[in-house]
Each structure stands twice: as C-alpha cells, then as structure tokens.
Amino acid sequence: MTEEATGTRAEVAALLHEQLSRLNRELRTLDAPHHISQERLSALSIVDRRGPISMSALADHEMVSPATMSRMVSLLVNDGLVTRGTDKDDARGVLVTITPKGRRTYHREREQRVRHFAQALAHLNKEELVAIRALAAHLERFTLTIVEEG
C-alpha cells in the first residue's frame, strides 16, 4: 500500500469519524415522545427483531457489558416495554421478550425517526439522494467489517 493511499484512507477515516459522531449527537437530540434514549431504543429494536433473546446475546449484540445491559433491561422492564423470563434451556439464563407496549413504542419511535430522515432527504437533489442510498449500503458493509475485526 502506498503512502498516498494510506494518507487518503486516514483522511477518509477522520472525516467519517467526525461526520458519524456529529450525526450520532444530532440523533440523540431528536425529540422522543416516550423519552427513550438511543441506547434503549437500540436494545428494544434487537429484542423486537430477535426476541426472545438471552441477556448475554443482547449485551454482545449491543457491544456492552452484561452488567450494563442488565441495568438497561431493568429500565425497559420498569417502563413495561420488555419482560425478563427464565431460559428453559439454561436454568441460569435470562430471556428478554418485548411486550405489546414495547413493540408499539419501538415502532412509533422508529417511524418518527424515519420521518425525520425523510424530511432531511427532501432537501437533496436526485444525484445526492442516489449517493446517500449507495452510502447506506457501503456503511452497512463497513459496519460489518468493523464488527468482524472488533
């Protein structure tokens, strides 16, 4: 790999880090009618798609410690969004399951965020929209690469 290519990769990495960090901060400020943090919403989305899911698998997926996930799940349980149950295949294991209220809340929050994105995309021209679509696919692949290397 040439020094020039490395420099270009480093510049792109820095730019990507800066913009994704900024986007993440902006996403955290979106008004959430149910005051659900981005982290809890992310965990809720996993439980919705993959649940019932073990506490350890959920922690692994969200890349947090089991203790952190346990605290987060406790908050979701207190809000009536998930339930904690025993794993019939592992007596010591805990399964997390989304409740009907949790499913409604997650889908309502997700729809609100998608609407917000769609409003922002309305300001782009056709070429920019095509580029953003391609970027989304590339970001998915990039994310998988980071997870696999992590």
Brief descriptors of the model:
single chain; 150 residues; mainly alpha; Arc Repressor Mutant, subunit A; three-stranded antiparallel sheet; 6 helices; 71% helix; globular
Strand order of the largest sheet: 1-3-2
- N→C terminal distance: 22 Å
Count of DSSP-assigned helices: 6
Number of strands: 3
Mean of residue pLDDT?
87
Low-confidence spans: none
Which outline best applies? globular
Element pattern in H and E:
HHEHHEEHH
Plain-language structure description:
By secondary structure, this protein is mostly helical. It has one domain (31-149): Arc Repressor Mutant, subunit A, CATH 1.10.10.10. 71% of the residues lie in helices and 11% in strands. The protein has a 3-stranded antiparallel beta sheet. Strand 2 (82-87) and strand 3 form a beta hairpin. Helix 2 (38-50) crosses helix 5 (100-121) and helix 3 (55-62) packs across helix 4 (66-78). The radius of gyration is 19 Å and the shape is globular. The model has no long low-confidence stretch (mean pLDDT 87).
How are the SSEs ordered, and which strands pair?
Layout: H1 3-29, H2 38-50, E1 53-54, H3 55-62, H4 66-78, E2 82-87, E3 90-98, H5 100-121, H6 126-149
Antiparallel strand pairs: 1-3, 2-3
